[in-house]
Amino acid sequence: MSKDVRATVAELADQGVVGITVAWADNNGITRSRTVPPRGLPSAVRAGIGVTPLFAVFDSHDAITFGHKGLGTPPGDVRLVPEADRIVRLSGQSGFAWAPGRLVAADGSDWPYDPRGVLAGGRRR
Fold this sequence. Notes:
Layout: H1 3-14, E1 19-25, E2 31-36, H2 41-47, E3 49-51, E4 78-82, E5 88-89, E6 96-105, H3 115-119
Parallel strand pairs: 1-6
Antiparallel strand pairs: 1-2, 3-4, 4-6, 5-6
């Protein structure tokens, strides 16, 4: 665990934060998220948080389109990795903090359906 992540965890705990919501926008612009306790941040930064690959084929009504080979069933794993240097405490919900996230393949490589990664030109770890 890096010194910066340890310091962030300690700072969040001192501020009374009990959950860090890691968010991403899906292909329809709908915000999706997962929340971890501060003690789970180091693991989330290192290995990510499990997310189904089906989010890549949800439509704007949360129906599964089955439009792409390999993305029509829930098996598999995509990892949601928080941008730890972008964590902010939420002023309206003082027990929570927020961070943007990026979706990566289970092995940490680029995942071709990650909207943030595509827009950033494939920038990764």
